[in-house]
Amino acid sequence: YQGLAGRSTKEVLQLYAAHGQQMTFQRSSVVTQLHGEIKKRLKQDLKSLHSFALQLSKDFQRQSKTCLYQVLAAVQGIQLQNEAMQMFQIKAFDLEQSLQEVTERYEKEKQKRKALHNSLIELRGNIRVHCRIRPLLPFDDAAGHSQDRQRNFSEKVAYAADDETVLVKCSRPGHASVNKTFQFERVYNDLESQDAVFADVAPLLTSLLDGYNVCIMAYGQTGSGKTYTMLGPQLEGNLAFAIEEESELGIIPRATQEVFRLISEKPPGSYWVEVSVVEVYNNEIFDLLAKDSCGRVFGVKRDVVTTREGKSDVPLLTHETVENASEFLHLVNKGLQLRVTHPTLVHAHSSRSHLVVTLTITTVVFGDNFGTLWEDEQTSQRLNKEASFTFPQKIRDNKSTSSSRASSPVQIEATEKMKQVKTRLQLVDLAGSECVGMSGVTGAALRETSFINRSLSALADVLGAIAEQRAHVPYRNSKLTHLLQDSVGGDAKLLVMLCISPGQKYLTESMQSLGFGTRARQVQRGQVKKKNFPVTSKGK
């Protein structure tokens, strides 16, 4: 058994060895087969990779060429743009130089325009007279004096013959009719609008910003349309600023809008505007913007004085700073609510006082710009002559100040760095001259009429003294003329708007108003014969 077991063991070992060899051979053949397949696949993959690499290289070369072309095109474009930019820079430099030259020429031309404009205004006359004939109104049909009831008082006797001539048909019972003519710078017929009236007023406002005082006043008998011309329609004593058509606005609101339009064309902060509203009632001045301790507006009596420089000033007068026309009109409306009115036989809402609205425009000039702002030699000399070298407080942020203002209407307040020039625009709605027999007033109203007529006569005396070049001009004969002293005469520009009623009923008053305007025109020449200035009303 042991021998058999030994042989069995050898056989087993041989079998194991043969099995091992068999397994090794099988593994070797599988590996060889796998190796062949792997090699074959690797060759295929290498071939595919090589083809892909070739294709990728070709694509890269193609894209590189495309990008290179694009870069070259971009470089060429940048070069062209740089050349164009250089050309544009050269053109821009040339344009800047041209703009500078044009600006310099423009400034010179602007100064020439100012000088020519003011020369034109002076040639036309520093005191200009326009005449406006209102249309016939329903109350013109009312009868006049009892002894003349047989005459037709609604008959139209005053006409605008042309835009410079007024024709008046003068007739008396038992006498032939006589036509009289009056010449003025401008005559408006009863069909011309508020727009047409203001179109001839607007050029004066340019002189305001050129350093001149300007005054526009409406003169005429009661009921002739002065307030309508100056303010526009009125409803229950208030200005109808909310009317649908702005074409009905009068000179005061339109002038304010034009002033702020002119200021808007100037550098910001170089101008600011203050407004005051006063009435001259019974030869007393009342501040219509003064407020009580509760902030309510009420009229306070003020006085007008003459300063050392010979200018008029109203101490403690209220000045309100305004930034636009709406604020201005709001203040004027407040003042109008306090204006004295009284019904008469001629007009149901007759104004019993002279309304004076003043815009004080302060121009701020920095450094050496003062000389360039007013290059007109006469203007510059005049402003320097009236200079006052006391600089006020800084511009206050509050909207109201109640203090004594600088007395000179055209005043320079200077420091080393800035100067201020003040000019005034005075807009005046005069009370109407009245014939006592026509208006039918009695009592207090009769006293008001007396003061009105006396102040208008004082205004006539002032214009007469200026026309005759008298050494003394009686400004102080009336508070009205004293208040308007700086705007009547001298270099100031004055426009008198004569308002005429066309009816036969008002012929006497119309003739007196036309006579006033005729004499006022002669002031611009300063060459008139000495004669008494016509009175402003019958029965004074």
Question: How would you describe this protein?
Answer:
It contains eleven helices and 22 strands. The protein is α+β, with helices and mostly antiparallel strands. The model is unreliable at 143-150, 240-244, 387-416 and 525-540 (pLDDT under 50). Helices cover 43% and strands 21% of the residues. A hairpin with a 2-residue loop joins strand 9 (271-281) and strand 10. It has two domains: 43-124; 127-138 and 153-366 and 417-524, 3-Layer(aba) Sandwich (Kinesin), CATH 3.40.850. It has helices at residues 2-124, 194-209, 226-230, 251-264, 325-336, 369-373, 377-385, 436-439, 444-467, 479-483, 507-521, and strands at residues 127-133, 158-162, 165-170, 178-183, 186-188, 214-220, 234-235, 238-239, 271-281, 284-287, 300-302, 305-306, 312-313, 318-322, 341-342, 350-351, 354-366, 387-388, 400-402, 411-414, 418-429, 493-500. The strands form five sheets. Strands 1, 5, 6, 9, 10, 11, 14, 17, 18, 19, 20, 21 and 22 form a 13-stranded mixed β-sheet that branches. Belongs to the TRAFAC class myosin-kinesin ATPase superfamily. Kinesin family. Residues 126-523 form the Kinesin motor domain. Keywords: ATP-binding, Coiled coil, Cytoplasm, Cytoskeleton, Motor protein, Nucleotide-binding. GO terms for molecular function: ATP binding; microtubule binding; microtubule motor activity.
